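ARCHIVE CARD
Drawer: 12
Card no.: 0347
Subject: one protein chain, sequence and derived structure
Cross-reference: see card 0346
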Amino acid sequence: MLADQTGRPLVQHVVDRVRQCGRVSQVLVAADDARIVDALRAFGTRCVMTGAHHQSGTDRIAEVAAGVADQIIVNVQGDEPEIEPEVVDGLIERLETSTDDMATAATVFPSGADVNDPNLVKVVRTLEGRAIYFSRSSIPHRRDATSQEIPPYFLHLGIYAYRREFLLEFASWEPTPLEQAEKLEQLRALEHGRSIYVQIIKRATHGIDTPQQYEEFVRRMRLG
């Protein structure tokens, strides 16, 4: 989060991108480490210190949501410095114009990506675009590869928009069986019968999980 070879901490790049969104009223960084607060102070970024006991990012975001009046909360990961502002705006717009409890994003599986990789989460949707299931397994299973109606594999992206009231309710629930089996907390919402809209976007942005990925990001930034 604090790597700063570009002259700005990695998480500040995320803040800068989200500040470009037309439907975002305020950007807050939920932090459990004072070093993040100190590093972002020079950029005028507002941080909210949260407890260090949270088991998930959703629980951390819910703590922040409890103290704000905004009715739609978007959780953007701090390692997504190239997040597309229109993706964030699109999720907000969806909740503003629907009855869904939350919204997320997915993209058609990138060429060369292994659909059997359990680290790449798959999602299947209803015809109206709502999530049926998320899994680390390859879903749907293509029993008949010669079918003329083979649906694409969709790669789930870890960005979520919530209705504030739902987010606080979600955080109060105990982990559910499917959630614990797959280690995917969004399944908690589905197991409770709640609605998750899945917005399909053109491509996935580059999340930063390794030093090598960070170096590649720095090179992209320097090339402009």
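Annotation on reverse: The first helix runs from residue 10 to 18. The first strand starts at residue 28 and ends at 31.
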